[in-house]
Amino acid sequence: MIMFGDMLSPFSLLVLLFLALVSAAGGQSYSNITRGTTLTAGGSPSSWFSPSGEFAFGFFPADSNSTSFLFAVWFAATSPQSVVWYANPRSPTLPPHATVLLTSDGRLSLRDETGTERWGAGSGGAVAASILDTGNLVLAGATGVLWESFDEPTDTLLPGQVLPAGASLRSRLTDANFSEGRFSLMAQADGNLVLYPLALPTGNRYDPYWSTDTSGAGNELVYNADGSIYYSLGNGTAVPINSGLNYPPESFYQRASLDSDGVFRQYVYPKNSSAGGGLTWNVVARRPEDICHALVSHGPGSGVCGYNSYCSSDGGQNQINCICPPEYSFIDQNNTYLGCEQSFVQRCELYEQSSFTLIPVDNLDWPYQDYEHYTNVDERQCGDMCLQDCFCAVSIFWRGGRECWKKKLPLTHGRIGSYVNRRAFIKVSRDNSSVSVPVPVPVPFEGNHDRRRSIGVAGAVLLGSSGFLNLILIGTVISMIVCSRRNKSEKQRSVTELNLRTFSYKELEQATKEFKEELGRGGFGVVFKGELPSSSGSTKLVAVKRLDRLGKMIDDDSEKEFTNEVRSIGQTHHKNLVKLIGYCHEESQRLLVYEFMSRGSLQEFLFGGERPPWEQRASIAMGIARGLMYLHEECSVPIIHCDIKPKNVLLDDNLVARIADFGLAKLLRTDQTRTNTGIRGTRGYVAPEWFKSMAITKKVDVYSFGVMLLEIVSCRRNLETETETEEVAEDAVLVYWAYDCYRVGRLDLLLRDGEDDRERMERFVTVAIWCLQEDPGLRPSISAVVRMLEGGVPVAVPPDPSTDIQSLRQ
């Protein structure tokens, strides 16, 4: 809804004329919004655009269902659109029908649906509000600009903006939650530019993790229009922040944001494909280079990630992962900064050393908060000393000094990486060592006092009775407990306790409108589009997978397949994996409910129309590799997917790759490296060992990834046949044609994109050929694949893959 007040007075017209002259002098034009103008959240229109249309301000949906809004400024011409400023960061979200009004006395007033003011700007006297082509929202009065959003930044700076002494940026809580987060970039009054972790909810500062180490008066952080960012010192010198990068404003959109993970990153977005880089936001600079390495403190606070978790960064530092140790799980999957909790009980009054075991993890450490330190010990002693101690949760061993540290919960400042050079021994329950199942830990309440006393009295009666009676009673109790545990269904033990939502079949039948809209089919079922009601009264899109094929299997196999899939997905949490929301298990009906991926599958993206930009494809390839690395090497129980292909990679709103369909995945116990099983997978992506009665390892996924990587690079299907039943000619097989092009130095036949990133494209092809080696021992691990794709390690010349053509015809 939009309304206009009275006609402008001559005085107001003079003010607007003055502003127009000022803007012309500065090379910037205004789009004026006069007194009495109102915008309404969810109305039409609900925003105003800058003169060029590159920026907008107004009400921006804070969630995919438009059930809440921000009053914000954002890039309107990019995909995804990026919010660069928003009002009232302490409580930024607003319900539908909230309004913003330029009042009759010249204030900008933000009000909720009841008319209560939630935020305001200006002290009065403004006759117009404008969004400039710089992204600056201004209030203009008789004397010029009375207020501007550039003076009250949130988490982002734009070209032309300055962060003066005394000002700061504050990160969001999460990427999707715009409330004030856990990190701050402060231009201090003493002249130092500092990154701080913060305590929530008070916001007090912990030890800094990066700074310019400068001092003096008049220092300020400057973001030039050409893309250079530097800390200008009062003495006339400058400290570069982005090493002199140059991104002309006529060719690139730009922003610099303190992201929710605490990293200050500079992003650019090409305005057209000729500028290079693909039409997406690309990170070109960051501070610090590696926050996992930088943010480690003797003081309080959890560190980059939450308590009892640890920080992992990829080689490019564009993604920070927070990971729970084996047999721990996130307290809240949507707010991982809250940390992880044990999936078992460890209490001193019930402690038995034989009930626990140790899981070693290399290059992992929580560096401080030790309570015991030993020297001149070996690894076995270091682990044993933790097992013998009921307080100990983790022991850390350093080979170089034969030193050992014992740690108890909560663990802080965790990090994993080659620079750590430690081995962690994580104590877990033997009963839980094969699968992580959260067990509620009893919490003493005042109301439990009488109950504990009653138990004590009952115990005294038993002890005062005859030994025979005691044995009978104790035996009966033990039998009841054992029987109770045995009678628990697999669903209760390994699904319900994973904090997944349980649905009835009727609920999902209604959500999918009786399974009306089919999204796709796989080897074990059909996926349908559904809508679930949310607490706000709106609906949320989901994908419901009905495991039809399981009903045809015998009960034991069916139960095992269902349980394996629920376990494997329910315990995996990574940016590049599809999230499982819940499940249904009623008699023969078994369904899984996933988050909905709006952009469909990678297969549709690659082969459904125009050739996607190279940068988007490269980013997707990296995402898939990182997702596989998580499954293979970072899960407490490693997972082999067994059916990696474009159809099983889905894309979210931001074209982030999400690995899907764990229906064929097989869990490996922590003491296993391989498994023998029947042939799984899809024609064209299946590794040769499936057909040779060889042991199946994680290298089958590496092979399938190699095939898919060639498809991503070339935008050509692996098998160029009209139907699935046709014979495959050798020149129709992408992996052979790609190697022939590589061998004769004609990769130009394969790579049809521009020359700007040819070196990276050729590296991707070389890595793919390594992945396609017939001998699994010659294939790299997926973590090595990630490092090679990132350019962190050199890629040697691969041998001829020599894959058996008959494998591809099965």
Rg is: 30 Å
- Unreliable stretches (pLDDT < 50, length at least 5) are 1-31, 433-474, 476-497, 550-554, 666-679, 721-730, 803-810
- Examine the secondary-structure arrangement and name the CATH architecture of the largest domain: Orthogonal Bundle
Fold-level CATH name of the largest domain: Transferase(Phosphotransferase), domain 1
CATH class of the largest domain: Mainly Alpha
Shape: globular
Proportion in β-strands = 25-35%
Question: What would the keywords be for this entry?
Answer:
Protein_kinase_ATP_BS, 810 residues, alpha+beta, Hepatocyte Growth Factor, globular, six-stranded mixed beta sheet, Kinase-like_dom_sf, receptor, Agglutinin, subunit A, disordered N terminus, 46 strands, lectin, 5 domains
Notes on the structure:
The chain has 810 residues and is of the alpha+beta class. It has five domains: 2-151, Agglutinin, subunit A, CATH 2.90.10.10; 158-288, Orthogonal Prism (Agglutinin, subunit A), CATH 2.90.10.10; 310-432, Hepatocyte Growth Factor (3-Layer(bba) Sandwich); 493-595, Phosphorylase Kinase, domain 1; 602-809, Transferase(Phosphotransferase) domain 1 (Transferase(Phosphotransferase), domain 1). 22% of the residues lie in helices and 26% in strands. The protein contains 15 helices and 46 strands. The strands form twelve sheets. A six-stranded mixed β-sheet has the order 37-41-42-40-39-38, sandwiched between helices. A five-stranded antiparallel β-sheet has the order 1-3-8-9-10, with no helix packed on it. It has a five-stranded antiparallel β-sheet with strand order 30-36-33-34-32, with helices on one face. Helix 10 runs antiparallel to helix 14 (782-790). The longest helix has 21 residues, at 467-487. The chain is globular. The relative contact order is 0.06. GO terms for molecular function: ATP binding; carbohydrate binding; protein serine/threonine kinase activity. It is a single-pass type I membrane protein.
